[in-house]
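User: Can you write out an input/output pair for a complex, sequences first and structure second?

Assistant: Here is one pair. Inputs:
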Amino acid sequence: MAVTRQVTYSEISPSEFFYRNRDLAGFSNPARALYTSVRELVENSLDACEQFSILPDVSCKIEAGPEDNKAGDQLAYTITIKDNGPGIEPKHVPNAFGRVFYGSKYKLKQSRGMFGMGGTMAILYAQITTNKPVQIASCFDGKTLHIFDMLIDITENKPIILRHETKQSEGTTGTSVRLTLMGDYLRSAQKIADYFKQTAVVTPYANITLIEPDGKETKYERATEITPPPPQETDPHPHGIDVEALRRMIKATNEQTLLKFMTKNFHRVGEKTGEKFLSFAGFGRNANPKSLSNEDVVKFVNALHQFEEFLPPDGSCLSPLGEEIMSAGIMKELQPEFVSMSIRPPSAYSGFPFIVEVGIAYGGKLLQPGMRLMRFANRIPLLYDEANDVAFKIINEEIDWKRYRIPQDAPIAIITHVCSTKVPYKTVGKEYLADRPELEKELKNATRDILRKLSTFLSRKGSMEFQKKRLNIYGKYLPLIAKFATSLSGQKKLPEYRKLLKREEVVRIEEGEEQPSEAAVDVEVETAKDSMSSKVNEKEDAQQRLEEFSKGS
Amino acid sequence: MPSKDSKNLVKARKQELLALLRQLGKNTYDEVNEGKFPQFVFPSRSVSNIVYDPRVKQYVLGKNNVKRSAGNIKHIRPFTQLLWLAYFADKLVTEGKTSTLRDVYYSSQADNMEFVDQSESDEIITDLEALLTKAREDFMVYPEDRSEIFGDLTIEYTVPGYEGQRLNLSSHPDGYAIGPSLSTSQFVETSAEMVIAVEKGGIFTRFVQEKVHKKYKAIIIDTNGQAPRSTRFMLKRLNKELNLPVYLMTDGDVYGEHIAMVVISGSANAAHLRELTVPTAKWVGVWASDIVKYKLPTDPMTEADIKRAQELKKDPRYTAGVWQRELDIYLKIKRKSELEAFSKYGLTFIVDNYLKEKMQEAKSL
């Protein structure tokens, strides 16, 4: 008997792949999905502005409804994100938003999102949950506004345009995206608020507005006109290449020789290095790249990883915030009494350059007692899984806080920013950084540096306060000493104690240590008195309350 | 008889104290006038500076000193408090008024001085004791707990309103409270030849009823447990000014033994003072060996009792003689008893037999 087996193979499109794996991309539940959608769209807007050095004006409006969609805790929410970026050429709009992996590339550039994929994911998620089209309105030339209503054909991975109309624009470029998705605003409101607040810290050059479903409008105003230099595209460093990447590079190249291929496509590879490498790897300099067999490609990649004489990647393609922008952001949002920064020189891991910037804020009216960590990677606030992050580990386990004499409950915020062409996230969720030794070292050095600066500030401040306190104390007790001594010794006139008080004003601060007398001096009896001053204050407070109470009654 | 000496002694002590206090004031005044920060130097009372001195049989302070200077930010407050206390003590002594620890704490507020709590002012009072090497009773600060005295001793008050008035301490069978008035009185006349101090009020009353004061020519004192400082001060005066030997009778347990020891050798807390100890006083009972000898009714020693006995065995004050020997017996028999236990043999047994025998025995101590 003959048995026929029929197996159906079907291709799945990238859209479908992401639809099936939406958990990975941060759409795991209605609350998280709403937060991620907002975040991805805002980041696209900020990225667009920054690439063209436009001072960003971004607004985000979240509205409940329309009412016809409801499922348990989930409600339909309509999100509208509007920016003043360069806009998108009308012919590119459908693909830019309606197709996953559009314009995929192998060149590397520092940006918030990779490939602008997150925005498309949000659109996909919205379509899946509410079946409503996304509306994109973009003005590229400053004259005409192109409005598209569209859906994504998930199985075909291509946009379906439902409506395209044009309007007279207001004379500025920019893009707005409006979509409706099922979400849980109650459970994501806090994260969304945190996201905007923290984003404002690292983008003080932007005006950002958040309008929440209850109509509450929060504006984060621009505090500086300085923008970070727009990030440059860079060729990949040989250490960061894998087999698939190499295959694509070979497919795309027009170079006829391997040497040319090396010098044209890799970061910091010149003729000399290229030749050295090819002889190291055992390939002829004049061989045609396209002639490499599968085995050759694997061998080539292994050699790329093993060859030690490639120059390390430089940071020229990176766009760190810099001291001025970062401190402007911190001053604006945290209003601390003290702020300081440490910017590390560029470093690299596995062929990817990165720069670590760490800031510290202390005191002021907004910071609460205790240490608060704010993590950023490529200017994205990282709000989840703090305890897994390398910065958290360093601050809580590897820094010896005692050395810096910073009180335990001091109101401190530590702001870490890592920028890289490829941020070493530990998971696809993009929420915390892996403990790469290179990264760890830079973070540690920067953190130590800012803690030293804070420590110096605090000790200076402490000695000034000490001096003031000292004068107060002497002003209080010297007259009493004069009075009691006069009475006890039977004198009529007070002694000249003012001389001592005057001397106090110029006396340098000496720590109140016991001075030795004839024999060894014992300090033990006195130490108990140190704690008295706080007790005195408590008591005075209580007394004052009592007096206020009796006045009141 | 000692009346005249006593009279002069009380006066002389007062004059000496006032001189010390005023000198303190003068030094401070002069230093301030010269533009110097005034300071006090006195022996440190930290644990590391308290040592046992076998010659005087008590804890004394070692050579370490504390310098408290108004020029030191951490010291100016306790310096001022100490100076204030000297000023306040001067007023008390001059006016013949007495005060208590609690009272001192509140009195400071009248002069704009503050103490956070009474323990802070108590600490300053002890500092002044160390600075003057005088007991606080000398500068009229008395404890609140009282004990009793009874016997043929005529005293003359020095407190205002009672100056010149006399009283014989055998006039009231419940005894007289050893308070400030009695402590500051002059001793005029006595027929007593010894002082017997007992640990308990009940035994004190029994001794009065059984006329111990007559039978032994004794002044009877009730220490009321651990003797308050005023009682130790009184015992010291009776011993020193009237040359009366002091005998101590306590319960038959380790705590009783220690009550006797504190009267004789003082405590580590008062290592800065000499005026509270009666080194020649004799502890006559109840010893552990008496429990065995008189077959007294007993209770078992608790674990805390045994631990205390082991601690005391290591104490330098207990190294020799009867002290060490009796502790050993306690640890062996692990039983304890009380003065009242002698009532097993009738109410008068304790005076007529036990006390008699122990006084005999004491001669050989």
